[in-house]
Write a structure and sequence with these properties.
With 297 residues, the chain is of the alpha/beta class. It contains 14 helices and 6 strands.
Length: 297
């Protein structure tokens, strides 16, 4: 049996779908969400209710504190070990999430590019400090495909892509495409009608604030974690920080989170379209679960 990979844009309903799939095929879920790895960040990352996590085992959730370093290599090592453990129990690992990069490293391994060059990195960072946003403009010029795949706020990966281009004369996206992936995965991309997806996103953001997102951010800051940490600059958290600092009012904060989340969902869908072997499942249609089970049996 193939290992199912459930991906899709934020708010589409991946968690609920994966839980039902796990019940049907005897599976355990491995999260591929780059935010759910953090402890204390529960509401803003839409973690599955702990009671459901007891019913269906979930892994790679609450792995590190907000100020700990975590990279794709560490994710890959931990996820591969979990997969083997789940398989040894005669269960099926189900990979679930919207962080496409996490699946990339599972399928293709760690990108083996040129070693880092501190002088180049320092020069690039100096340019960015002097002209914020200039590195993104440069990346668009030399490697449009990497520009699409790398989040606009991910300065580390932007610098790495430019560093590789400077050292090799080749776009990093070309080097990505030369990798050969494992064939034990079957990829499903969950989708919905755009209006329905955006409505779900808006409702979910409202629910986050009703459930205490503002208090969650306050508590994290009161625990001594800096507002400048990477996870605190993610969607939902950075806007609430602005609200707590009095820069925006609550209504504006909520609308900003909704807009940013919708834009993020759009970028995710752009990323997922590169998976030519993926099976797209429209959750607005009936029998979507049966379609997935049919492909993995």
């Amino acid at each position: 049996m193939k290992i199912p990979v459930i991906m899709g844009p934020t708010g589409v309903g991946k968690s609920e779908f994966a839980i039902e799939l796990a019940k049907r095929i005897g599976g355990e879920i491995i999260s591929m969400d780059s935010m759910q790895i953090y402890r204390y960040m529960n509401i803003g990352t839409s973690k599955v209710d702990p009671k459901l996590r007891e019913e269906i085992p979930h892994h790679m959730i609450d792995v590190i504190d907000p100020d700990e370093e975590f990279d794709v290599k560490r994710f890959r090592d931990m996820a591969l070990e979990l997969m083997e453990d789940i398989i040894s129990k005669k269960k099926i690992p189900i990979l679930v999430g919207g962080t496409g990069l996490y699946f990339e490293v599972l399928r293709y391994g760690i990108f083996n590019g040129p070693s880092k060059n501190e002088r180049i990195r320092e020069a690039l960072l100096k340019i960015e400090r002097e002209r914020p946003g200039s590195l993104r403009d440069l990346l668009l010029l030399v490697d449009p495909k990497a520009f699409e795949k790398i989040d606009s706020h991910d300065l580390v990966r932007t610098v790495r892509a430019l560093e590789v281009y400077i050292l090799t004369g080749r776009p990093i996206s070309n080097l990505w495409n030369e990798r050969t992936g494992e064939d034990r995965y079957v990829v499903f991309i969950l989708t919905r009608n755009r209006n329905e997806l955006y409505s779900r996103i808006n409702r979910r953001v409202d629910f986050m604030f009703e459930s205490g997102l503002v208090d969650e951010v306050k508590n994290i800051i009161n625990m001594g974690y800096s507002k400048n940490l990477k996870p605190m600059r993610s969607i939902g958290y950075k806007e609430v920080v602005q609200y707590l600092e009095g820069k925006i009012d609550l209504k504006e904060c909520i609308e900003m989170v909704k807009l940013s989340t919708r834009h993020y969902a759009k970028r995710q869908l752009t990323w997922f379209r590169k998976y030519k072997d993926a099976i797209w499942i429209n959750l607005d249609e009936q029998s979507s679960l049966e379609k997935v089970i049919q492909f993995i049996e």
